[in-house]
Every structure is written in C-alpha cells, then in structure tokens.
Amino acid sequence: MKMKVLSGIAQPVLDDLLRDGTRTIELRSANNIMTIFDQKPGDYILLSDKKRDDITRGTNGIIAKIKNKKISMHHISYSTNSIYEERELTIARIKTQTAGLGTIKQIIKQTPQGITTEVKERTEKYSAG
Asked: Which superkingdom (predicted)?
C-alpha cells in the first residue's frame, strides 16, 4: 500500500490512537505540514515516532485514515516597553482513524513534500498495556 509518512509523532498520541481508534492530531513540524498539505480525507498515512531522518525500510508505525484536515495560520504578537514582535505560525490538524499497523517495505521518494513509501500491513494485535 503506497502512502506518506508523518514522523516524530509522540508515543502517547500513538497509544491513544490505538486504544481509542480515532484521534485529532495537531501538527506543528514544517516537515509534517508539508507532508499533509496535499493529502485529503480518505487518504491513508503511516504515523511513526521516529524522526524524519530515521525513517527507513523496516520502520514500523500505525496506518491511519484521514477523516478531516484543517490547515490554519495563527498570528502572535507581543510587546515590551522597547520592542514589538509579530509571528505567524502554521498549524495543521488532522482527524485520524486507526486502520492497522504497518512496516515500511520500500522508500519510494523523499522530497520536501514528504516521504512516500510502500507499506506492508501487519496482522498481529497490539496491546498498549
């Protein structure tokens, strides 16, 4: 199954997704935002706690179906007596539903828009306990 990889997802988030079946994940990493940008509801992604540079053949993760996606810009400003600063922050929120467990069989392509992989679904059961 061909899909992109979201990397660096916190282990408690992955555990919640496996236990509850659905989870909204907030992405702040530029790599993950670029990866999810062209994805749409109904697409499948592999979620991994590994850093992007550590994603290789054999990396395990959770296969999740994207149920909803929202990308937004937050404007932050603050000031003191002598300075005024403004920042913009892009955040992506995706609602996901667990579809299974997977292992990367092959890295197909690595670009700034994400890592595209061939993933083999695993059949064993997972227990968060």
From this structure: Archaea
